[in-house]
Structure formats: C-alpha cells, structure tokens
Amino acid sequence: MTETTQRVALVTGASRGIGKAIAHRLASDGRHVVLAARSLDALETLAAEFKSQGLSASAIAVDVGDSASFAEAIAKVVTDQGRLDVLVNNAGITRDGLLLRMSDQDWDDVIRINLTSAFVATRAAARAMMKGRFGRIVNIASTSGLVGNAGQANYAAAKSALVGFTKTVARELGSKGITANVVAPGFIQTDMTSGLPEAVTEQLKKTMAVPRLGEPEDIAAAVSYVTSDEAGFLTGQTIAVDGGLTMC
Ligand code: NAP
Asked: Domain-by-domain residue ranges, the chain?
C-alpha cells in the first residue's frame, strides 16, 4: 500500500467522451486519477498522455456491469492507492427503443450498467471514504432522467433512480464528511450522441437558452467543483448542465 496525501479519484467510463474529460480535469485539479473502463489499451494510452503532461494517473480494466469483479477492483484501488477520496460513476450505455418494442434484455442491461453499478461502486468506496472522513461521490445521470425522453424508458428510469439513490447516500454519509451529488448532462458531443440526425439537434437547439450541444469539458467543469475540497456543504443536489434545456 502506498501512503500518499494526494487525493485519489476513480472515474468510470474514462476511456472516452465525458469520462475522459472528467478524468483530465480532476487530474489537472491535482488528484491522482484512476481511469476505469473495459478497454485497458485505451486507458493505458490515456494515462501515459496524462503523465506526459505532468499529471498523475493510472488505469484499470473493469466491467461495471459485473458487480462482483467491479467491487473487487475498487477494493484493489483502495489497497494499491491507500485511499479513495472521489468516485465518479460515469460509465453508461443506451439501448433505445419505444416501450412496446423494448426487450427485457435492453431494460436489464441499461439498469445494470447505469444504475446498479453506481450502487456497487458507492458501497465499495464508502468504507474507505469514511475512514478518511472525506468523500465526494458524483453520479452522472441525464436530463432524460429528469424530464423523460421517448424511446428511453430504460435509460430514463435508471438515470432518474440515480437521483433518489444519491439523495439517500447524501443523507446516510453526510455526517462523515462525504457528499453525494448528481450531475445531469443535456446533449453533449460524444460517441453516444454522434448518431443523432442533424434535424433533431437543430430542433433541440431551438428549445435551449444556450443553443449549442455541450462539450464534455462543460460537464467536467461541474464535476470539478462538486468534487473540490471546498464543496463540502453541497450535497444531495442534481445539477443539470444542459444549456437550459430543462429549466422551468
Ligand atoms: P460514451 O462516449 O459512449 O462513453 C461511455 C464510456 O463508458 C466509455 O468510456 C466506455 O468505455 C464506458 N463503459 C461503457 N460500458 C461499460 C462497462 N460495462 N464497464 C465499464 N465501462 C463501460 O458516453 P458519454 O457520452 O461520454 O457518456 C458518459 C455518461 O454521461 C454516461 O453515463 C451517459 O449516460 C451520460 N450522459 C451522456 C450524455 C451525452 O449527450 N453524451 C447526455 C446525458 C448523460 P469502454 O467501452 O472502454 O468500456
């Protein structure tokens, strides 16, 4: 076990998109960042890139949908790093389809990867955070979970459930110096949204106060603040970073 005073952050789904931007931002904030996803090659390349920029990072292969091995991987991070201060549950998938045609498999996969994984990771990380009397947990949800989205019954259910889960974690762990919050992105330019037809994005922009798709860095900036040492009084909240898409 390494003894270090540097705070350690674990970011799931860090190989690309929003997770990659969050990982880079937290490393730039001075954290040692553990990059987690299934594709170890991509993560190792990224960790090397971070290190070449003077940042601190390491990589682990995890499938967040395999609860037992995911929990073991988190325990190993705690053992190897000697601490775990920040957990960002970002890995997520979509399996879209209208309700009447949605398969049980598509429902189960989306719930397991987007929701159950956050429970498994939070439970595994909480003990180390309690020991350190400090923790910052961020669950990446979606505006689909706040207002619904046709074709995403599974995804909206998972992301909405993250809100209730996070509030409960905030209540249970707040007295231990641990905060838990949700960051809910709107439409962000990543692989996940690359298939959206231009007509759809143009229509979306008309409903937004800031008429553009978001960048992964827009989400990373919010996560940076929520996970900072100074954000200890901010907990149980859902911050929609969506260009005003869902404001009422
Ligand atoms: P993305 O580009 O598709 O990246 C998804 C990431 O999750 C990848 O790093 C992927 O890595 C990882 N991942 C997927 N399944 C995994 C598994 N079983 N185990 C471990 N890692 C897994 O997605 P994104 O757009 O960056 O989205 C990131 C998060 O933001 C998701 O939770 C998503 O629901 C949420 N979000 C995105 C948007 C948007 O507009 N993009 C909007 C709202 C919410 P590997 O394939 O290497 O495992």
From this structure: 8-240
What band does 2 get if pLDDT is binned at 50, 70 and 90? low
Say if residue 229 is exposed, middle or buried (CB neighbours under 10 Å; 0-12, 13-18, 19+).
exposed
Within 10 Å of residue 212's Cβ, how many Cβ atoms? 13
* Mutation to probe ligand 1, out of 190, 200, 205 (largest number of atoms < 8 A from CB): 190
**What's the whole-model pTM score?**
0.98
Q: How far is the CA of 90 from the centre of ligand 1 (A)?
A: 6
Mean pLDDT (whole number) for 146-170: 98
The predicted structure's pLDDT at residue 224: 99
Q: Give domain 8-240's CATH number out of 3.40.50.720, 3.30.160.270, 1.20.140.10, 3.40.50.10190.
A: 3.40.50.720
pLDDT at 47: 98
**Is pLDDT at 226 greater than 60 in this prediction?**
yes
Mean pLDDT across 128-156:
98
Is residue 225 part of the annotated active site? The answer reads no
H-helix segments, the chain:
17-28, 40-52, 67-81, 104-111, 117-132, 143-147, 153-173, 198-206, 216-226
Atom of ligand 1 nearest to the CA of 216: 26
